[in-house]
Amino acid sequence: MKILLDTHTLIWFLEDNPRLSRNAKLLIEDLSNEVFIHAVSWFEIAIKTKIGKLALPDSVEFIFAKATANQIETIPISPSQLTAYHALPFFEEHRDPFGRLIIATALNDSMKIISNDPKFPLYANAQLIW
């Protein structure tokens, strides 16, 4: 199975945070799954740590290395993902550009998303796991 992690999912997994569901943790750890994080999530982490909206116990570089060590691959932004982003329905209650690009990428690349974001179910075609 191809899985795309939402930003908070990656952080919770790497921190062994109890807010991460048992199911999510097992799927991420299952080596038969291909697990990805979008480059936009790294951008989101960098921005939010810099402006003080996100506190991490480790540096961004350490978290990146830890993700790589856990077989989590980074997906770069592509033109086809941006086309999918543009085609997504716009919901006033979900204006988060990072989350919207994660959803667009999962739809574009036929991936399931592991996320606990309460806004993601607005996108009926997104295959969500928690």
TrEMBL record:
SUPFAM superfamilies hit by this protein: PIN domain-like
Domain of life: Bacteria
Coiled-coil features, chain-numbered ranges: none
InterPro entries per UniProt: PIN-like_dom_sf, PIN_dom, PIN_Sll0205, TA_system_RNase
Residues of the PIN domain: 3-123
Protein name: PIN domain nuclease of toxin-antitoxin system
